[in-house]
Amino acid sequence: MSRLPAHPAQRIDRSRPVSFTFAGRSYEGFAGDTVGSALYAAGVRVFSRSFKYHRPRGLLCCRGHCPNCLVNVDAVPNVRACVEPLRDGQRVTPQHAWPSLEHDALAVIDRLHFLFPVGFYYKTFIHPKRLWPTYERVLRACAGLGRITFPGEPAGDYERAHLFADIAVVGGGAAGMAAALEAATAGLGVVLVDDQPELGGRWRFRVTPAADAGHAGDDIVREMAAAVAADGRIRVLDEATAFGLYEDGLLGVLQRNRFVTLRVRQVIVATGALEYPMVFENNDLPGVMLGGAAQRLQGLYGVRPGQGAVVVTNDDRGVEVALELRAAGVVIAALADARAGADSAGIASLHDGGTTIMRGATALAARGSGRVTSVVLGGLDGRVVSEMKCDLVALATGFEPAAGLVGHAGGKLRVGDGGRLTPGALPARVLVAGEVMGLGELDAILASGRLAGAEATLALSGAGSRLSARVSQLRDELARRRSHVEHRPASIAPGRAAKRFVCLCEDVTEKDCQQAVAEGFDHIETLKRYTTVTMGPCQGKMCHRLSIDVCASLTGRTVEETGTTTSRPPAQPVPLGALAARFADPWKLTPMHHQHVEAGAELMDMGAWKRPLAYARPSDRQRAVDDECRAVHEAVGLIDVSTLGKLEIVGRDAAAFLDWLHPNRFSDLGAGRVRYRVMCDDAGIILDDGVVARLDADRFLLTTATGTIDAVEQWFTWWLAGGRRCAHVVNLTGALAAINVAGPRSRELLQGLGDVDVSASALPYLGARTGHMAGVPTTILRIGFVGELGFEIHFPADYGEYLWATLMAAGAPLGVRAFGVEAQRVLRLEKAHVIVAQDTDALTTPFGANLGALVKLDKPDFVGRDVLASVAGRPLTERLVGFELEGTTVPAEGAAVVDNGHAVGRVTSAKWSAWLGRVIGLAWVPVARAHDGATFDVRMNGTVAGARVALRPFYDPDGARLRS
Amino acid sequence: MWQLFRTGKMWHRNGLRDRYDVVIIGGGVHGLATAYYLGQRGVTNVAVLEKSYIGAGASGRNTAIIRSNYRTPEGVAFYDESVKLYEGLSAELGYNVLFSQQGHLTLAHTDSAINGLRVRAEVNQLCGVQSRVIWRDEIQALVPALDCSDRPRYPVLAALYHAPGGIIRHDAVVWGYARGASRAGVDIHPFTEVTGIDVANGAVTGVRTTRGEIKTSIVLNATAGFCSTIAKMVGLRLPITTHPLQAFVTEPLEAFLDKVIVSSNLHVYVSQTDRGECVIGSEIDPYTSYSHRSTLPFLEATAHHTLELFPCLKHVRVLRQWAGICDMTPDYSPIMGGVPGLAGFYLDVGWGTYGFKAGPVSGRRMAELIATGRTPELIEPFSITRFSEGRLVGEKAAAAVSH
């Protein structure tokens, strides 16, 4: 089909043809086309099948709002064809139709519609109960729209950007540009967000000057667009949709495939109006189209929307649409205007051109099979006047403010002049301009834009006489130019037919609403939930107002009494991939990581870190773990503990602060000494453990578990907020590397390697020293999580690789061996050392975990003291105990402790210790069983094994080796 | 079939009487279920007061996951009764609540998470609840769309498979109970906000509302989100903090997922409704608030985590996001029962993120308590006195994200 003659607003480049396929057939369009415009130009009228009744649907809004043109494009489902840019080789396929779009088997539901009234599924398939899963499978198979393919990640990528500005103006039409220019003049930084490739909004393709205004809108907006482009303070985001307005001026924007977070101080919403259809019989037939859609088709893409049209309206917009269609060569058979006294130069011109003018009239029904072939017109009382042949019914009957963003910020719509909805009291930081306020004429729209720009400037710059004067001058101007447009909401034609659609996404008819109201769902919110009106892909853009009008008329209430439903983000659907673009979910690697890899380590995730589990392939793991443990027991082992959380606490009140955050005490810890720390929340539950080393009077080095550092740092900073304590918390986790040197020969390895005397007398158990080790500045803590003589060396991360290599080389004659997390877990279990969050849970206080001695209730106050004091006074119900198991089978961690078939506890740790030659573990058991030699049953996958309680550590119970 | 064409009112609209035997505050699933089961016991001079439309609060905002694979024997026994009631609910109410008992998988991505699953599997099995730890091959077979490869930052390692779990049409449950209660003679009063509760001599005497005063000797606080403000009306301070919880839905897709997928490690859960939308949510927001406003950081993080599990959803669009508010107790278990020293005042609160799945059992047991005056054994562990007596019921590990 040939295109219309070129027009300045047209986007298509006729010199660049583009080939694509739809439903397996080849088509051609032009660069600049959308999939929808190219198909429509090629004569395609049916684009999709509807959700419930599988009725044929065609282009309705040409704006990316309605559900009628959802197709699959190159394996991406639910693409809105009417706004999807056309690309060479695109494969477009219809969805929700079988075997084909033209002949859809499930269209039979449309004929059997009386069997599927609203909410039919609530009333059927109840008996017999056993058949429900079968019914459900059928329901599921019939529902849904697009099809996704898996496995594998679909092609196509998204980007992310973060922008900041003083003011965001959303909407690049006349009002938005006026606002942006006004604010920029005052020197503020403005980001103008517009969802089209060119600024100007609907004025750009306004071919004919409107009957009520002397000027053609496109000249004015073209000039403004040039001024915007020339203004360095305005940054334009074109083809960008602001989909959500969140707390504190945060806008979510999707610009093509780029997700932009835009943080601003003021938001001007100039998003225009949403055009919605009207309710009459068969109002969903392809060929029934919104006036704006027809304008866009011919204005932007040079596509004639039809040959013969009937225009239905209730104000001058319809006259404008009719004139433009006629200018494009469409025969306007009739204009049905709901206004009894409608008259204007435009109407006269239409009449002179042979158009039948019907005043006080509207569309009662569309007729045709698969597409419109005629429309029944009649009076507002439902009396049929005539049936006109046509292939296009253009509706210019309903507009409501596109105020979604205002709603996100908490603003509500109220009923204004002539029954229109307009934004009521505006939320903080939010201003509105243009058609979103219900304005219709260009002069008033421009004035409202300038006013919003000036008001935003005033809000940001503080009161100034010049600015205030400008604002009041613009207020006056707007008041002067604002005319009260007569508006008759004739969005529901009289009639009683079954197929009068209120909601196209969900195929909800007026009759459905009627039945719902009769059943008691007569509040707009319950009506919405019962019928699912406004809950489909258009999210109410087509049906929000219609559902309110229908609800009001069915309940006899006013629109105001009926109320509106809440608008929620996103205002336009956003792909998950865009929201997730460049989301940081990093791996953390220690400085020695590649050395572990080269040594053949099997890696595991711990928090965000990768750690060596054991230095062997998984198949050799058990043997390697046994060897690693033996090396630590007999000689010396090294483990990379750089992943430990490390905080430095500095300041006059550092000691008092630590006393406040922990049940145990640090203020009496001597400089150069280390103490175990266990930290509880305000309910006395163990959060984390580690050690605290006092480096000097006001300086502490504190370690946390690998996975908890972020939470602990947050907890510390939270308690520091308020500034009453002189203490500073510095997270040194990444800055320091750490190596634990453990084993009877560890002292031998370190002695003489640097200037720190590590002899038993100079650095006793729980001592801390600073000095150099192989030339590297270090802090050495004498602690031993793994139960042998041990030194934990903290030092700048840059030296990690060097010191690791140096220690491995120096230790070679001593039989040094690197050991991994698994060996460490076995070794610490031999000592019955607890791992917080593995051996403890969200209810564990220090008392149950045998750490009660650390709780210093004689301290004046500390976090969790109240609860711990009350717990201390009560008998425990369960306790964490060590246990041994007969045989070599290791129960899984998490196995249940059972008594007479009831779960009475659980195994938290269990390992095979080659060194001890038996299975050992930790378990929570009832207090009655928590004594040496008591036995209990462990159940795992249905088998039961007998365990024996051992309250003392399995290895070196008196700590002689640890302290040696 | 005849029901299809029935257009009778779902519930009656009666005037507010000045005296009721029982006043239930909160017209959500808990309040209405309690009213329904009271009605079944012949206690029918009952009013349900709701400040908005029925089901407007947490009952209309939750993501409708039903399961009983909790961690403590007390929790498992309690939620198991709820699952069983849900299984028979459509038939009992004569209203299809669309219980899609499709199965529920809690994924583990770390070895410590696997341990947590094992604990639950063992406790569940001992309590007679179907639940077991399964590994990648079986997970992949159950959920073909799930990425079980090593590609994700935290690959899926194992899952707790709980076959009786599933999703339900939450509004239908609310409406079904409302209809049943109304038929039994209970009065349901939407748009009736409670402004005060009268107490004399340690006993409840009446309730003041925006529509007038009511004399009564029994009041049940069955509210969510604002349960502490109602409790404050009788001078009771609850150990509860209120946090927002957010969720979103995608555009409808052809059926591709027929299991509820939860990952505590990734803070995300995904299910597909019978209509085809994916319902996706996360854990509670870390801050306390009564705000129903959605946030963008939630959407970003949850989208990312969803795609870690289901990369096939990359171009699928988010249709709508919303927030609800949740009353959190320190041990992630509810508070149910009477209040010492305050005769006639009952609590059914602190439902955190697990209230909807407990609607039927709480309603039934609270009705039993109110009708008989005796606390049923099943809800005894959840009494308010547990906080002062150190008898917490620790469900955090099983309830934090796995709504």
Give a quick precis of the structure.
By secondary structure, chain A is α+β, with helices and mostly antiparallel strands. Chain A has 26 helices and 48 strands. Chain B is α/β, with parallel strands linked by helices and 403 residues long.
Overview of this protein structure:
The complex is a heterodimer of chains A (964) and B (403). Chain A has 26 helices and 48 strands. Chain B has two domains: 16-62 and 170-240 and 331-398, FAD/NAD(P)-binding domain (3-Layer(bba) Sandwich); 101-163 and 241-327, D-Amino Acid Oxidase, subunit A, domain 2 (D-Amino Acid Oxidase, Chain A, domain 2, 2-Layer Sandwich). In chain B, the strands form four sheets. In chain B, strands 5-6-4-14-15-16-13-17 form an eight-stranded mixed sheet. In chain B, strands 8-2-1-12-19-18 form a six-stranded mixed sheet. In chain B, helix 1 packs parallel to helix 7, helix 1 (29-40) packs across helix 10 (359-372) and helix 3 (73-87) crosses helix 10 (359-372). At the A-B interface, strand 6, helix 3, helix 4, helix 14 and strand 29 of A face helix 5, helix 7, helix 9 and strand 17 of B. Strand 29 (574-575) of chain A pairs antiparallel with strand 17 of chain B, so a sheet runs across the interface.
